[in-house]
Amino acid sequence: MQKIANLLVVKDGQVLLLKKPRRGWYVAPGGKIDEGESIYEAAVREFVEETGAQPIQPHLKGIYTMMIMDDEGQQLVNEWLLFTFVAHDYSGDVLKTTVEGELEWHPLESLHTLPMAEGDRSNLLFAVNERGTQYGTFYYTEQFRLLRESLQQSTEGE
User: Under a CB-based contact definition with an 8 Å cutoff, are residues 60 and 83 in contact?
Assistant: First the structure.
């Protein structure tokens, strides 16, 4: 199972997103969790590596399982565990481009329409609009067509 952490910065009604060159899809900066690394450490490290900036007081907003199925949706091909964090400020200067893609600020509303995996859209919209923590499972084909999703949330605390 692949473990991944990503981190979305929300500031002044905008979100910082990474446009990946392969598909032209937008994602929150993030990547693989290293062995022995906490999910928090991984989210911060990946954000710094991919943006050049330091997130301020990030907190966990979602925990998701991504089930990658064959094109018929019958056989499990891969499984990922994703931890999504959000921060409302950062320090330093954000890079324009990195080896991972182009960094761009977008209005919050654009999360509804920008090209991205539909599971990412669900979890990023929750992260910027809702209180609490979301949990879920997304089932995708290998081409990242969403087959189905199951979402739950807790609202205690933030």
Answer: yes
Tens-digit pLDDT profile for residues 127-158: 999 999 999 999 999 988 999 999 999 986 54
Counting Cβ atoms within 10 Å, is residue 118 exposed (0-12), middle (13-18) or buried (19+)?
Answer: middle
Q: In angstroms, rounded to a whole number, what is the distance separating the alpha carbons of residues 56 and 76?
A: 37
Q: Could you tell me if 133 and 61 are in contact, meaning their C-beta atoms sit under 8 angstroms apart?
A: yes
Tally of domains in the chain: 1
Instruction: Please indicate, yes or no, whether the overall pTM of this predicted structure exceeds 0.70.
Output: yes
Q: Quick check: 6 and 28 in contact, CB under 8 A? A: yes
Q: Which domain holds residue 100?
A: 2-154
Q: Taking a C-beta distance cutoff of 8 angstroms, is the pair 68, 51 a contact?
A: no
Q: What CATH number is associated with residue 90?
A: 3.90.79.10
Q: Is 28 left (phi over 0), alpha (psi -120 to 50) or beta?
A: beta
